[in-house]
Amino acid sequence: MRVKVISIPVQDQQTALDFYTGKLGFVKKHDVPLTGNDRWLTVVSKEEPDGAEILLEPSPNHLEAAGTYQKALYNAGIPYTQFDVDDVDETYRQLTALGVAFSVTPTEMGTVKIAVLDDTCGNHIQLVEML
């Protein structure tokens, strides 16, 4: 088995695309119109364009339970997922300069350093650097 696509629930796909590409540096991989305003919209790491895709999933708008789950995680400050970075401190500086809000600033926790950002789409995302 291989991981090809993971989903992140987003409240607005265009806002998510703008944030994930404009702030986090991902690149758009697929953008296929579906029903209504929904799209099969994926982004990938520019360092791994053939790697796992992130589906910017509009599920909170169509499935009440998904929205409830997303909101509960967000309100508890629990990251929906995590992304690995080479240097949390440098990534934090770069993203802060772009106006990205963080709920947890760079913090060492044993063998990792983490920071947690707000993706503007209803999720906390944890950045992780292996020490």
From TrEMBL:
Q: Which residues form the VOC domain?
A: 2-130
What the entry lists under InterPro entries is as follows:
Glyas_Bleomycin-R_OHBP_Dase, Glyas_Fos-R_dOase_dom, VOC_core
Question: A Pfam family matched by this chain, by name?
Answer: Glyoxalase
PANTHER family the record matches: GLYOXALASE/BLEOMYCIN RESISTANCE PROTEIN/DIOXYGENASE (PTHR36437), GLYOXALASE_BLEOMYCIN RESISTANCE PROTEIN_DIOXYGENASE (PTHR36437:SF2)
What protein name applies here?
VOC family protein
Lineage start = Bacteria, Pseudomonadati, Bacteroidota, Chitinophagia, Chitinophagales
